[in-house]
Amino acid sequence: MRCLRLALPHSCTRSPLARLYSTESWRHVWNEEIRAKNGEFNYQKLPKTELHRHLEGAVRLRTILEEARRHHIDHLPGVSLKDTKQVFDYFDRDKTGRVTPQEFVEACKEMEMQVTTAEVQRVIYHETKGKDNSLNLQTFNKMLEDLMLAELAPYILTDSPFPNLKSLLDRFDRTQSVFKDAQTFERIAFEAVEDAYDEGIRLLELRYAPSFCSMHHKHSFDMVLDAIQRGVERAKKMYDIQVGLICIAVGAMGHEEMERTVDFAISRKDVFVGFDLAGAETELTQWISQFRRVSDAGIPITCHASEDHETGHPFNAVLAVEKLGACRIGHGVQIVKDKKAMEAMKAHQVLLEVAVSSNYLCGCFEEGEHPAKKLWEYGIPICINTDDPGIMSLDLQGEYKIWHQDLGFDGEQLRESNVKAVEGSFLPKESRKMVLTKHFAD
Question: Deepest in the core among 21, 114, 173, 441, taking most CB within 10 A?
């Protein structure tokens, strides 16, 4: 029962956002409705585009907990508590079917947990929304669920820079450990699209790595994609959002997995809108032949490059464009360290998929030193992304606030960045045109 701590961090629960978005024209939404009474933007109402969001890094914390329980993955914190009725009965000292603050404090005291009556009253107020002064089984279970999430959260989420690469990868591995069957993949895909819609996103590209998703589970690549596709299509029927899937090849997994991923992407090019390379900041040119095959198959290419402050050489982004055929770059922010790289990327006019908070959390730049505005003013097209919102405790509207308040982008520049993203999207032309006309037309 060590999880029964009375700290309920709201950032751990990822509850759905209110659907405040209206489908009126851009001129009305952006120029009239987006300003609150204090004169600031209502970031949630801004229609948005996101091109760089990893499915594996966009899983709800509650989903990780519930799927871990379903698959009996007991090594994750908060998973092992299953018999909540037994816990409730232990706290319900007088067997009335309700737990009072006094009973709660008494039970905690027996477990050598120091809590005060005031703390318990605050929890009860939170769980009952101020409507009751005690907990029934339903609200008690909700409290336990919140506490389980609070215990699991530090193992999955972060809002401070990762001390090292292992710390980041460990979080991905813990999330990936629940990817046990098709039902899980369909669920996380559906919820990722639903969450994007709730953030105001109207055109979304989700990317995932077949090798990573299948690792340790022996899933077939086709099974995973089919399940993800079902989840995406189910969400698209419910929400006004256009969605495309990008296949990621992980360079760090070696040549065999690279060839396997390329073969798979080409075989399923009817589903994938694009192809990406990640985990390969060094020796990019070793993948020229594989990317030529992708290009020859007619699949558009993006590439993680010039991201890391140590291995992300400024010219990696240029090599990805000129040697691998990339028509977009994931991150690319280290090009600011080299004027020739900046000039080359400006000449190519290749869109950079920039994720400011992710770059800070991954140690690419110190807080307050991100070069997004410098890239913009230099004439290099960039767009706004989250990267891994389910691991980095963020969402796209929070990124808009950073771009507006901290980086100095005004409303017109935010709109222009969205237009660049829609125009640079790998989705079919008719989908892009529809989004532009409906949400960003003058």
Answer: 21
